[in-house]
Request: fold
Amino acid sequence: MLVANRLCRPSSEHALGQWLESDFVCGRDGKRIVARWKQQGRVRVDLNWLQEWYRTLDRLLAHKERIEVELFARLRDLFHLQVEMVFYDLTSTYFEGRGPVGLAGFGYSRDGKARNRQVQVGLVMINGWPIAHHVFDGSLRDSASVEMVLKDLQERFGLGRVIFVGDRGMVTIQNLALLRQRGQGYLVGLKRRRNEQVDRYIQAAAQGPWQDCPVGITAMEREKVPRTMVTEVAGEEPNVRVFVVQSEERLAYERGMREAAMEKTRQALEKLSLRVAAGRLKKAQKIGEAAARILGRNHGSRYYGWSFEKGLFRYFEHPGHLAPEKALEGKYVIQTEELDLSAVQAVEAYKDLSEIERSFRELKDLVEMRPIYHRRPKRVRAHIFIAALAFLLARALEKKLKAATVPMSSAQALEALRTMHVVDIRVGTEIRRGVTAGNHQARQILAALGISDREPLQTQSSEKMPA
Reply:
């Protein structure tokens, strides 16, 4: 029930009662599960009833390790998963308040909540399926989690050699050495900024030759199809292959972001210039502090410099920083030691890493994993586990719909299914229960899922219907 709640109507355990009022949820006996209401301070449901759900979280967490392994085994059998590439990335989710001691910590926040303590969640995906997740202290560095995840894949899931696909935050000399030591492959993106090696790779790629990569369905539908091109350049280490990728779509996005940031920074610098010219700001220290604050926002220091001489404040496009920024736009660099991967295959595999980014958005927005209000570490872990299981069901739903050529996301499908309603009909002293057919989309979804019998279990109740 907790997983279904997280999937269909994301809410806290406190809001279970409201969900049960609007949605029909029954046990195996067919009887509807109803909330027990009792106002106690700010809590409207019976605290004893609420504690039953908290104890469910505790029992579930005790079996997390085994559940994930058995789910993976079932997925592998049902969908013939070919375990070759393992995709891994981290995200963060924040706490309101202090959070549990030993788990909540300050670190790089993907939610833009740097002042909130957080916990980090590492997601492992194979063939688009989330097979495992790991909960880490909020202050842990991205790269520090890689060794733990690799060990888990080998010991708990029994995976042999895989190609580890990770983003730039996972790349350290130690992690690459670890992958080589354990006989694992890798395909990783390299950090672009303040990386002289990447600058050399991009310069070497200028001569090409460039090779076109296949575009996705969404890109194909555009009036002007954006190109993605790749070229291989010589790596600076033995056996290392390097691919420089140039994406028109990414170029347009990054250029637009830079131009917008530059305009905001320019306007702020212009206002500062007018203040100085009008004599409202005179001291060099105050002027420098104001300029530093402006350039500290919107990555302004990447684009502009300034000077204050003889009472005159000037700002200008940075002669050393701006040109390298423009050179990076639309480009990224991939590194691997896999000899059998072509340049195009490497790009396609690395692009699949964006699937995890979409997965995180669904995991946190659709499943409403943030913010977290639990105060005990085990409850936080169980809360995230419930979200992960609901997300797994959402992915299963999407894959079933895709296989049946029903173009809907899991969120759209769940909304369409809400057009189906449970109705109770009185026949004499007996109450018969039925389900309406729902709209056309709902019927499509049931067909895609292979559900032909939509009737709920019938109870033997002879209770009279309310007037």
User: Anything to note?
Assistant: The radius of gyration is 27 Å. The longest strand covers residues 85-94.
